[in-house]
Design goal:
It contains 14 helices and 19 strands. The protein is of the alpha+beta class. The radius of gyration is 22 Å and the shape is globular.
Length: 455
């Protein structure tokens, strides 16, 4: 410990190091449930690339594991500390270095908060689409590490589609540049994409070149109530089959609707079994919403309410944004799943989750990025009750198994971390797992970067 701190202090300002044992445990974990976390030896908050390189050279010399962190809003334990590690928190590297309206790119450090970037580019008539629910807190580096998604993915895609290039500090302290600033580029293997979603296990992202789009018109939203989740999912299939491209297509089940009403008194209909929200940011969104409204009615919607203006649209979207906080009030703890299935199997996923909730005697609310087939079953449980906690963990595993059985994936946007290591192995298979471990070894032969995650 003394040798580690002595070497770190040789290349870092005093304020970059946190060793107080009353403070370092606050950096031990992210927001995931059921994920073990160790006690870090030290927390480092660098402000420059050179400081990150010094940390990694020190870690390599002393064979000390390093756990990279952003804002710790993740839900899979990917940022959890291991015993005796260096926690490398990148939140102080928070500069927007460049915004180019001509090239439609932004160059940023990893600690830039998603919402801060979005507002900055918006002032120049540009748009950075990835918008995780935690966008007011989460960082671009964390978004890259977990390949984050968000509400707009149905039209605009996920983080991976907006990362053009990266500057990465490797495990031994060397600096690697990947990708490009140009609109096109196919030189060599796509190492940039390899780092996106790698959860800090291959290198430390210290700079990112991000693609931007022109700012679209303000969207209008439609809310449709359904007598069953199956009917709402049928409407989703009809909307996508007919070639519509909504900017948002979100679903909330009965449990979620009631939780939102109880928390925020939003006046959502308690009788509804599923609420579908659809938005368009096209030149004529009212016409698009009218067409979608007819498809919802054909699927059995009992009520279809298109917003008249942007203000009313924001009120409807507030219900969706309140879903997770509302479900957190149902019990003392929640475990948030992230299972993505083909859109055509969305109904089966939601119905299967309801059956799992009944089997284990638990409250499980589902909100979903329905246009992507990305469901978020939220298991609500009393963490002080060992038996209920056991059932919550068991229900999580059954939900994972259901997603794979339906041809889906164990995570659409939250990542693997600690929580889903076993399930990643099942999804990848023996050959896939062997190759991925080989890639990890090529970048990090000593296994120092975020050990115990993914594999």
């Amino acid at each position: 410990m003394d040798a580690l701190l002595e070497r770190l202090r040789a290349g870092l300002p005093a304020e970059a190091l946190i060793t107080d044992p009353d403070v370092t445990p606050s950096y031990a974990h992210d927001m995931a449930s059921f994920c073990d976390a160790g006690t870090p030896a030290v927390v480092v908050l660098p402000r420059s690339v050179e400081e990150v390189q010094h940390v990694m050279r020190t870690a390599t010399a002393l064979r000390v594991p390093v756990v990279p962190q952003g804002a710790r809003t993740g839900l899979s334990g990917a940022a959890n500390a291991s015993d005796g590690c260096i926690v490398l928190s990148l939140v102080k590297m928070d500069r927007i270095l460049e915004i180019s309206p001509v090239d439609r790119i932004a160059v940023v450090e990893p600690g830039v908060v998603n919402a801060t970037l979005s507002r900055a580019v918006g002032e120049l008539g540009l748009y950075y689409p990835p918008d995780p629910s935690s966008w007011e807190m989460c960082t671009i580096g964390g978004n890259i590490g977990t390949a984050s998604g968000g509400l707009c993915c149905v039209k605009y895609g996920v983080t991976a589609e907006y990362v053009l290039g990266l500057e990465v500090v490797l495990a031994d302290g060397r600096l690697l540049n990947t990708g490009r600033r140009t609109a096109k580029g196919v030189a060599g293997y796509d190492l940039t994409r390899l780092f996106v979603g790698s959860e800090g296990s291959l290198g430390i992202v210290v700079k990112a070149v991000l693609a931007l789009r022109p700012r679209p018109p303000r969207q209008l939203v439609l809310a449709a109530e359904f007598p069953s989740a199956a009917a709402a999912c049928d409407a989703v299939c009809r909307i996508m089959e007919r070639g519509h491209t909504p900017s948002l297509l979100e679903l909330m089940d009965r449990t979620t609707v009631r939780a939102v009403n109880a928390m925020a008194s939003m006046g959502l209909p308690e009788s509804t079994e599923a609420l579908l929200l659809c938005a368009f940011d096209t030149p004529d969104p009212a016409a698009d919403l009218a067409a979608v409204g007819e498809l919802c009615k054909a699927s059995g919607a009992t009520e279809v309410v298109p917003a008249d203006d942007v203000a009313e649209s924001e009120l409807l979207l507030q219900a969706r944004r309140s879903a997770l906080p509302a479900l957190e009030t149902v019990k003392s703890a929640t475990m948030i799943d992230d299972v993505c299935v083909p859109r055509s199997r969305l109904g089966a996923m939601i119905e299967g989750t309801a059956a799992i909730a009944e089997k284990f005697g638990l409250t499980i609310g589902v909100c979903a990025h329905a246009g992507d087939g990305n469901t978020h079953p939220v298991v609500c449980f009393d963490h002080t009750d060992p038996e209920e906690s056991r059932r919550a963990r068991a229900s999580f595993d059954e939900i994972m198994a259901l997603g794979l059985e339906l041809g889906g994936t164990i995570t659409g946007e939250h990542g693997v971390g600690v929580l889903k290591k076993e399930w990643l192995a099942r999804e990848l298979g023996e050959v896939g797992l062997e190759l991925q471990r080989g890639i990890k070894s090529a970048f990090d032969p000593l296994g120092l970067l975020n050990p115990g995650k993914l594999f």
